[in-house]
Design a protein that fits this description.
Structural class: mainly alpha
Shape: globular
Strand order of the largest sheet: 6-5-7
Order of helices and strands: HHHHHEEHHHHEEEEHHE
Radius of gyration: 18 Å
Distance between the termini: 21 Å
Number of strands: 7
Length: about 280
């Protein structure tokens, strides 16, 4: 393990072009250019597959699982929650344009009035509050199953997170800073694995590229265990022995905002299986 860590640290020399841009779209295009150079032959649309795009055998196994997904019952449970009327007769679909179809593709978004990033989970809880219903705990299984279904209504819609104000840009830049900042006893950043070392092996796992990572959450680990993107942040932070973000904190939400913007233009695919 020490040898693997040393190899990763030795190879972690971020190109200045990936962190110097102040314009989000330039950031995104520079990162894509970095991956095209480091991982030639992978189509941009396939970045949503992560490491599966680099391993034909693993992709075939994934396709077999997804043909009869073990989490189908769980997603149906989320669908039942989504469709169940509130006590006032309204439903979740009434809170979103087009009954929620393609809605998740626009989240997270920056709310200038609130002065913060609003995630899709925040929007769902705002809907509950508006209808005088109890909000769901962030990261709870019920919330994860509900968002698994609700996000599936945006399948094949392309991610389109927008940055329209100074506040939104500040949140984006804060998220970017967190992504490239080293932390923990291992002195790793998110970018250590998913930018400079994308495609390399860490233990038995091939490291995925960051572009595309935010397009498919929640995912189901081992078939039936829903894991959100922010829960995954915490797992990674635990692995590098760093302080874990609180779910729905400014840090977690800004990081999700940055990462999702970097997946702009890619198709959403929710939910998915991961081993």
């Amino acid at each position: 393990m020490k040898k693997l860590i040393s190899l990763l640290l030795a190879g972690f020399i971020l190109p200045v072009s990936l962190i110097a841009f102040a314009d989000p779209e330039q950031d995104r295009l520079a990162l894509i250019a970095h991956y095209e150079n480091a991982l030639p032959g992978i189509k941009l649309d396939d970045y949503v597959l992560g490491a599966l795009s680099m391993n034909e055998e693993a992709k075939e196994q994934y396709d077999d699982v997804m043909s009869f997904p073990p989490f189908a019952t769980d997603v149906r449970e989320g669908g039942n929650i989504w469709e169940k009327p509130f006590r006032n007769g309204q439903r979740f679909g009434n809170c979103f344009k087009y009954e929620g179809i393609n809605a998740a593709a626009t989240y997270p978004l920056y709310d200038d009035t609130a002065g913060r990033v609003i995630t899709f989970e925040n929007a769902i809880n705002a809907c509950l509050k508006l209808n005088n219903e109890a909000e769901l705990a962030y990261g709870s299984r019920e919330m994860s199953l509900l968002t698994s279904y609700a996000r599936s209504l945006s399948d094949n819609s392309r991610v389109r997170v927008k940055i329209k104000s100074a506040g939104a840009l500040a949140a984006y830049e804060h998220g970017k800073k967190l992504y490239y900042e080293r932390n923990g006893q291992m002195n790793f950043a998110c970018a250590t694995c998913h930018v400079d070392n994308a495609g390399k092996m860490l233990r038995s796992e091939q490291l995925s590229m960051m572009v595309g990572q935010a397009s498919h959450w929640p995912e189901f680990r081992a078939g039936t265990e829903p894991v959100t993107l922010q829960m995954r942040f915490r797992q990674c932070q635990k692995n590098i022995r760093a302080k874990q973000f609180e779910l729905n904190s400014q840090d977690a939400n800004d990081l999700e905002f940055f990462m999702t913007y970097m997946s702009n233009g890619l198709k959403m695919q929710t939910p998915v299986f991961r081993k």
